Amino acid sequence: MDLDALIEVSPAETRVALVDRESVLHRLDIHRAGRPRLQGAVVRGRVARVEKGMKAAFLDLGPLGEALLPKAKDGRGRPLTEGQWMVVQVSRDAHGGKGPAVSARPVLQDRYLSYMPFGLPNDTRIDFDRGLGKGRDLANVRRLAEQFDPGETGGWLFRPAAAALGREGGISVINAARDALLARWQAAQSANDGSSPKVLEEAPAFWQSLMRDAPANGRIALDDRVLHARMKAAAETSYPDLLEGLLFHNQREALFDATAVEDQIEEAISRHVPLLGGGELVIDETEAMVVIDVNLADGAAALSGGDAAVRLNVRAAEAAARQIVLRNLAGLIVIDFVKMKQRSDGKRVIDALRRGLKAPGGFADVLGMTAAGLIEVTRQRSGPSLTEQLLAPVSGNRPLSLDSQACAMLRRAIRLTGGGRPTLYAAKALLETIRSRYKDALAETETRLGQSLELVEREGRSPEIVMETRR
Fold first, then answer.
1. Rounded distance, CA 35 to CA 439, Å?
2. Other residues' Cβ atoms within 10 Å of the Cβ of residue 346
3. Helix (H, G, I), strand (E, B) or coil at 422
4. Closest Cα to residue 85, out of 62, 52, 108, 63?
5. What is the number of alpha carbons within 13 Å of residue 258 lying toward its C-beta?
6. C-beta of residue 304 within 8 angstroms of C-beta of residue 338
């Protein structure tokens, strides 16, 4: 499924929503001030210790902390020794008390090509991303590849967006991407010196990753003039297929409100998710696993006759798959569906779940149905879940975290209209969070407002931001 991107920029955070053509939200990424991304950075690190029992190693990355290398081997498959220096790439950001993870085989990516300095896993020089399918797109890209010179070292992977390049002029874009990737790797190699951990190539900015990974001829809408100009320049220079679909939202109504994304975010952090046609999902995240229960609720009447239970479970499987990807749930996920008459009916439900979990953003494996009628899923961890990012770490009814509240208040502040003094009434803890952790974002908010934002302490009530008239 090709998804459009909506980018809403505010002083404290930038939110990126991936939606389908009916504006249904499938993924939400949040980038907050003061929390730089590490994923994709190329780093020189030192092997701190090798854990033979885990067949893994831990690397000292200096100010980036200690990182896990899942296999204790270098990029050419040779065993590591403690104290050894090596070049790695951050494959996962730190989260949930865990440090970052790294790979010993860096992959430098462009929109149309990926370069693997240590070669492709299948020992070929050129290969094609599975996202190109097996039809016309793959055939067109293969024709481009016939004109491509891979050079003498490393391996090259043609990415899905290469299908958007025409036969005329397409190879010149591909060659420019190749030269840029080789220059990046050479720069990283040249910087690989000294006797301390070192970042050899910074992680790409979120908007660079977004443009790099957008589908062929993808659409991106955003509400910030500066970022729009930056992305437009990148499209004109390097990503011609994205230029037409790059849109600027120049309306008073917030982008996420205008597209109904804001309401869907509320649903995505709720424990209860209603199903079309009746019933609901009840989603609980625990330390050991995620449990999803298909609850009949007010949909009991829908189970009368024939394979009604199967139809309900198929709808629930489709909804559960979307929620798993949207909430970025990972690890072991157990789903308890409504009991069906025949065990063989479970195949339709499993197939619906597998189709829904094919969305990009994390590998998932549907393990099948247990003897008790539960379906087990495992999904690769790729950063914190949505509830970890947005909700406070407490049990029971989880309120929005102080970070989330602070970002939301500053986001609302820049959209205040009318006369008067902008004033935020909130509890002391929230005001202190804004003054300290989001000091720079507060300053930018006041610059946009053209006046200072007054912070007034008020305990025991929900935070409120208004334009207050003073006598």
1. 14
2. 17
3. strand
4. 62
5. 13
6. no
Number of C-beta neighbours around residue 13 at 10 A: 22
Whole-angstrom Cα distance, residue 290 to residue 449? Answer: 43
What is the per-residue pLDDT across 231-265, written as a single tens digit (0 to 9) for each? 999 999 989 899 999 999 999 899 999 999 999 99
Distance, in Å, from the CA atom of 90 to the CA atom of 104, rounded to the nearest integer, reads 9
Start-to-end CA distance of the chain, whole Å, equals 56
Pairing state between β 220-222 and 4-9: parallel
The fraction of the chain above a pLDDT of 90, given in percent, is 64
Which H or E element spans position 467? strand 464-468
CA 124/CA 154 separation, integer angstroms: 9
* 372 burial type by CB count under 10 A (0-12 exposed, 13-18 middle, 19+ buried): exposed
Cβ contacts of 26 within 8 Å, gap of 6 or more: 1, 3, 18, 19, 20, 322, 325, 326, 359
Q: What is the pTM of this model?
A: 0.83
Name residue, tokens 């899942």: 70
Given a contact cutoff of 8 angstroms between Cβ atoms, the answer to whether 275 and 282 are in contact is: no
Residue 57 identity (one-letter amino acid): A
